[in-house]
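Q: what sequence does this backbone want?
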C-alpha cells in the first residue's frame, strides 16, 4: 500500500499547491468568484465536467450499476442531459448577463427583491450539497487509511477549504482540471476495462446475471422520471453550475464547452453502470451496493493503479465539494449578507471584496465540516436540498428566461408556495417520496402563472434593461474589460 499512499499524498499536496498559486491570480472580485470570466473551451469543459460528476456520480453511480445493471446509469445520465440542455438552450444568455448569482439574475429580470428569498433557498441547497460531498471523504479515507470518520471529514474538508479560500475560483478551476484528468484516467481508462476483464467479459456478465441487468429501463420508468425532474432540471438552475457558466470567456465557449462536458457525462454514466455490473458478477453478496466501488478497487487493481483510481474517487468528491462551497459562500455574501449590510451601512463605503468573499468561504467551510460531522443521513439531506431547489426555484428562473409576462409578485409567490408545499409534502409522504417534488413543482407553476397574470406587468424599463443584458449590452464596465483568455 505504500505506493498507493504515495500517489494519494502527492495528489493532495498538489491540490494545496494549486490553491497557493491561484491566490496570486485572484486580485479582484471577478477573478476570485468567476475566474475573471475568461476560461477558454478546454478549461471550461474540464471544470464543468468535474463539478457535476462528484462522489454521488462515481461511487453512487457504480452502486446503482451493482444494484440494477446497465439501467443504473440513468441517474448520472440525467445529469448529463441537464448539462446538455443548459449548454444548448440557456448558457449563452446566462453568460451574457455578467452576474455572480442566480438571485442577481432574478433581481435583474423582475426588478424587485425576488432574489432575497431565492437566495436563502439557494444557500440552503449549496450548503447541503457541500455537506454531503464532504461526508464522502469518510468513506474514501476509510478505504485508504482505515481512518476515523470524524478525522477523515476534517482532513478532506480542510484541504478543500484551504485551497478554495486561498485562490477562490482560480484555485478551484486549476484543481478541477487536474481532477478531471485523474477521473478520466482512473475511472474510464483503467477501472472500466479492468473490471470488465476481471468479470470475464460482457458474455460472462450476461450469462451470470438476470436479464434485467441488461435492460436499459430496468430501474423503472417512475424512477427515471424522478431523476429527470430532480437532476436534469436541477442542472438548469443550481448556483454551483451557473457559477461555472459565468467563468466562460464568451457565450460560444459556454455553449459548446458545456456541450462537450455534457457528452462526457453520458459516457461517464455508462462506465459507472458497467463497472457496477461487473462488480455484481465478482461480488454478488456485498452488504451495500455503495461498497461496490471501493471493493473492486481494493481487491482487483494492481498496486499504484489502485492509488490512482482512489485518487480519482477523491477527485470526484473534491470537485463537487469545492464548487458547492464557493457557490454557498457567494450566495451567503452577495445575496444575503450584502443586502443586510447595505440596509445599515452607507452605500459608498469602500470594502475589500476579495477579502470579504475569502472570509465567507472560510466561515462556510467550517460550517460545512461541522455539519458533516454531525449529520448521518446523507441521502435524506441531499433529497431535501434538491426538492427545495427544483420545487421552489425552477419555475421562476425558467419563467424569467422564457415568459416576459412573469412578474416579481408571481416569482415570489412561486418560490414561497413551491418551497412550503415541498416541505409540507415531505412531512406527509416522507423525505424520500417522489410526490413532494411532483406536487410542489405543479403548485409552484400554478402560483407563478396565476399571480403574474393577476398583477401588473413588469415595468417596461426593467424589461428593456433585462433584454440589453441578455444581448450582452449594459454589463458593468469592470466586467467587459478585455483580458487574455485562459485555455
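A:
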Amino acid at each position: 500500500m505504500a505506493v498507493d499512499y504515495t500517489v494519494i499524498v502527492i495528489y493532495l499536496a498538489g491540490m494545496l499547491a494549486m490553491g497557493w498559486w491561484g491566490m496570486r491570480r485572484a486580485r479582484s472580485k471577478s477573478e476570485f468568484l468567476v475566474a475573471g470570466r475568461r476560461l477558454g473551451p478546454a478549461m471550461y469543459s474540464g471544470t464543468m465536467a468535474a463539478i457535476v460528476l462528484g462522489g454521488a456520480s462515481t461511487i453512487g453511480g457504480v452502486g446503482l450499476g451493482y444494484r440494477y445493471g446497465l439501467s443504473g446509469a440513468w441517474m448520472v445520465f440525467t445529469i448529463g442531459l441537464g448539462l446538455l440542455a443548459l449548454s444548448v438552450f440557456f448558457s449563452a444568455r446566462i453568460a451574457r448577463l455578467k452576474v455572480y448569482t442566480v438571485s442577481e439574475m432574478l433581481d435583474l429580470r423582475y426588478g424587485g427583491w425576488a432574489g432575497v428569498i431565492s437566495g436563502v433557498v439557494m444557500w440552503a441547497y449549496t450548503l447541503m450539497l457541500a455537506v454531503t460531498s464532504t461526508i464522502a471523504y469518510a468513506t474514501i479515507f476509510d478505504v485508504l487509511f482505515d481512518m476515523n470518520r470524524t478525522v477523515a471529514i476534517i482532513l478532506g474538508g480542510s484541504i478543500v477549504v484551504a485551497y478554495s479560500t486561498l485562490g477562490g475560483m482560480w484555485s478551484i478551476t486549476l484543481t478541477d482540471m487536474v481532477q478531471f484528468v485523474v477521473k478520466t484516467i482512473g475511472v474510464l481508462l483503467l477501472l472500466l476495462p479492468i473490471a470488465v476483464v476481471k468479470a470475464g467479459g460482457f458474455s460472462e456478465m450476461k450469462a451470470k446475471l438476470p436479464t434485467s441487468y441488461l435492460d436499459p429501463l430496468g430501474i423503472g420508468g417512475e424512477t427515471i422520471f424522478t431523476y429527470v425532474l430532480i437532476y436534469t432540471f436541477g442542472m438548469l438552475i443550481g448556483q454551483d453550475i451557473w457559477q461555472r457558466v459565468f467563468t466562460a470567456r464568451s457565450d460560444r465557449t459556454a455553449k459548446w464547452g458545456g456541450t462537450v462536458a455534457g457528452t462526457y457525462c453520458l459516457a461517464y454514466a455508462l462506465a459507472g453502470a458497467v463497472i457496477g455490473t461487473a462488480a455484481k458478477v465478482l461480488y454478488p453478496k456485498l452488504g451495500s451496493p455503495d461498497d461496490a466501488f471501493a471493493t473492486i478497487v481494493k481487491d482487483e487493481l494492481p498496486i499504484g493503479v489502485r492509488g490512482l483510481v482512489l485518487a480519482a474517487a477523491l477527485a470526484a468528491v473534491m470537485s463537487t465539494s469545492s464548487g458547492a462551497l464557493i457557490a454557498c459562500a457567494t450566495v451567503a455574501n452577495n445575496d444575503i449578507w450584502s443586502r443586510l449590510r447595505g440596509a445599515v451601512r452607507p452605500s459608498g463605503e469602500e470594502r475589500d471584496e476579495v477579502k470579504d468573499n475569502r472570509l465567507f468561504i472560510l466561515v462556510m467551510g467550517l460550517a460545512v465540516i461541522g455539519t458533516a460531522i454531525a449529520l448521518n443521513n446523507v441521502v435524506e439531506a441531499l433529497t431535501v436540498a434538491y426538492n427545495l431547489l427544483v420545487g421552489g426555484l425552477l419555475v421562476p428562473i425558467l419563467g424569467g428566461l422564457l415568459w416576459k409576462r412573469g412578474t416579481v409578485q408571481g416569482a415570489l409567490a412561486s418560490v414561497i408556495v413551491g418551497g412550503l408545499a415541498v416541505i409540507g409534502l415531505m412531512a406527509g409522504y416522507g423525505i424520500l417520496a417522489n410526490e413532494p417534488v411532483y406536487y410542489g413543482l405543479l403548485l409552484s407553476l400554478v402560483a407563478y402563472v396565476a399571480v403574474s397574470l393577476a398583477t401588473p406587468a413588469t415595468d417596461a424599463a426593467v424589461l428593456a434593461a433585462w433584454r440589453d443584458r441578455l444581448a450582452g449590452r449594459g454589463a458593468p464596465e469592470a466586467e467587459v474589460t478585455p483580458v487574455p483568455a485562459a485555455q
